[in-house]
Design brief:
The protein is α/β, with parallel strands linked by helices. Helix content is 40%, strand content 14%. The chain is built from 16 helices and 16 strands.
Length: 466
Amino acid sequence: MPVNSFDSYPLTWKPEKEKLKPPYYKSLAEDLEGKIRSGLLQAGTKLPPQREIADYLDLNYTTITRVYEICKKKGLIYGTQGKGTFVSPHSAEDITIMSPSASNEYIELGDINGFSQYSGLVEQATQAVIQKGYLKNLYEYSYPAGHPHQLAAGVRWMEQLGIHTDFEHTAIFAGAQNALTVAFLSLFSPGDKIATDEYTYSNFIELAKLLNLVLIPVKGDEKGMLPEELQKNCMINRIKGIYLIPTCANPTTITIPLKRREELAAIIRKNNLILVEDDISTWLIAEDRKVLPSMFDILGGQSIYICGMTKSLCPGLRIAYMAFGEQFKDIILHGLSNVNIKTSSFDAEIITELILNANAYKIAAKKRLWTKQNCLLYAKIFQDFTDKYEEISYYQWLPLNTSKAFREVENDLLNKGVRVYHSERFAVTGNAGQNFLRISMCSAESTKKLERGLYILKDYLKANPF
């Protein structure tokens, strides 16, 4: 008899033997998934070692290994070398951040909508496009990657952001999320491992689940991902790709300095990783600071770079540019043609008009000014809570000392009239001993509403020191 095969043995996951049926790996995987999704196994629960489960069930060790691998590919569990296997955060819930319908019930400090109320110049550009003699050409199903003059405008916009490419290595997508989907679906396969920051864009975490990609969180510091930690994970986990937001990372606001970018690029080259670089914030600092070289340029264009336009110009115009190296050109265009819903040529033409008539730069300048003012307001209100804040960012990352569940914190604040997002939404494998709130600087509709919302949040934190 196996040493552990007795009913009273304490196991966090204890499959019911009598309900198992061949093939056992499939039956066990379904049991484990069911217990996780139902909440019986909570996020962070340490699962029994594979050998113990195998002994308890009197099954081959490799059967349990197969079960764990199936659940890892689904994003339900993750392993940490030397510590064990744990239930993943968000495995039983959806953390997708969706733009809300307009509401007077709360002040929006969660979603990042990019000052959507500022639309006058966009309306002018729309009228200009309507009056163009070639309008009917925009209604045709042609140029799936974008009309040549639209691509040229995109190349011009990206150049100010430190991206040097040409229209033959550029494509237009219906928003950055669509571009991310095509990139990861085209370049990776289910089970592939992708390195990312410990906190990252929550909708990317959900996308990885849908595509059955395994996210490997890599430790970082105040300068971003640590190169030595990336190298260590490459050796341990056989990582194939890496997802980075090098400038004002969502949600942490960290900008990776040049030396660190170069160090990370060296690791990427050494291990032949495929980099997908997501850029939503470089345009915010392009006027005030010297723009740092993009990872795309440091790697000589041999990577993927995505530049969304919704936050900089207009949230309702779902347009994003993707630049890619020659080695990725065919596979990206193939993916775009077979996966991507055709990007609206009309929307792309409006963005093109704004870039060519220079009003895009006027819109960006106005939004920079508002962002700076709102960040200063945040710094003033929360000076007693933190001395760290980003001078120009669409969001702030406020430390939160609490053991409350993230839904409880979010719901408490929503009931008080403010919506914010807890750091648990952005944690790849759970908060690392510290909680935060991501607070939007660009979604409250007015400075007065933002100020009122920030004071509601401050009062809540004072009344709940946790």
